[in-house]
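Chapter review: from sequence to fold.
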Amino acid sequence: MKKIICSLLISLSLSSLSLSQNPKEEADHYPIVEIPIPDNIVLEVGGIEVLPGKRIAVSSRRGDIYVVEGAYTDDPGDDKWIPWATGLHEVLGLAWKDGWLYATQRPEVTRMKDEDGDFRADIFESVSSAWGVNGDYHEYAFGSRHDPDGNIWVVLCLTGSGGASSDFRGWCVRVTPDGKMLPTTSGIRSPGGIGQNHIGDMFYCDNQGLWNGTSSIKPLPVGGFVGNPTGNKYYELTDAIGKRPQDPKSGSRISTERDKIPELVPPAAMFPHGKLSNSPTGIACDTTGKFGPFTNQLFVGEQTMSTVLRVALEKVNGVYQGAAFPFRGRFKSGNVAVRLGPDGSMFVGGTDRGWGARGGKRFALERCYFNDNEPFEVLQMKAKPDGFEVIFTEPIEEKSGADIASYKMDSYNYIFQSGYGSPVVDKSNPTIKSASVSQDKKSVYLKIEGLVKGNVHELNLPGVKSIEGKALLHQVGYYTLNEIPKN
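The token string follows.
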């Protein structure tokens, strides 16, 4: 076996070019190392967790868990794969706590412990199996790591991705340390992953489909409703979070329905279908400060396009919203699990079985890391009453930054409907009236006429240069404007 530093192809299709304007240059900042998988293992990664002693645990959709040694290095001679457990049921979440490895399987959360130090599980305990499951292909269960209270959050895909034939399908539930299941958030359709931000708030990715005009990342507040009413019939099985919310009107817009349905929580960031993401998956937050300039931001796997996205959120009027950006492409398979290690290594694993992916391999496990060569990027977009503040990772050239011709903004939305997905609708072209560069030259204030509440605001920045004359590595960001600040 040999570890391979992934090289990037020179010739690109137009579709991949829209995801990553400078794909060859991404490797100059964030190289990818392929971790070789033994020939006798069909991995199909579903979950990744960091273990003590520079080891990681990797789970398979086929029900196996392996402990991998040597994953943090480029040396193929130190790789070792140890089977921790086999014969489980589609493990799509791993979490390590107090010497136990917790696995979210399709029918339950299980915890396992190695008692004799050989990195193989000796004790298996069922923590909770209180939700419903049948033989339907789409009844996935994605599990989080432990939240600050010790709970594991599980997002439950609808039956067939469009029905709710088993209890609490279309819900997020919490599994407490003592094994109690707490129904938490309704309105889920087809999740691809779950994770928390730096302050412990939980988010998940939902895929385009019924009541999801495009894919997105959504917060999971206790008692919230995130848009798809199919599973809301299970409010009758719980009194933990109040009454069933009113069903939304098909053909409307999320911003319109929010005025009628207090429980309705909008996506924090919509991912334009075909441009940025078709199937978003796992979520990792950089709390290490060792993964470049993006501390406390979220990184999201993308299965179809074999990429990782970056999401920079803020709260405006108490509501999460923010911008999504391309980050890194050219992974080898369809990314499902994303996990950051304590040294800033990003472990990414996935599969293309049943879902299809551009990466080319049936399954893969890779490590992406920051090589201390900081990229010139948009760090964050912040909403203002009359525009956006755009913050950069490096100081910008004042002339290009102050020229409104360096920018272009489009605004659009998606239909909130019971049918599958949505075309782009409600298009507009907000006018950039002025661009004011800050004194430290690391941000610009764009005054904009024509902001639209509820719309995606796509900002292209082809003309902005750094003080060294560099173009932005990625020249586009997609900001979901749920709320316009009051001041």
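Two observations follow directly from the output. Confidence is low (pLDDT under 50) at residues 1-21. The longest strand covers residues 307-316.
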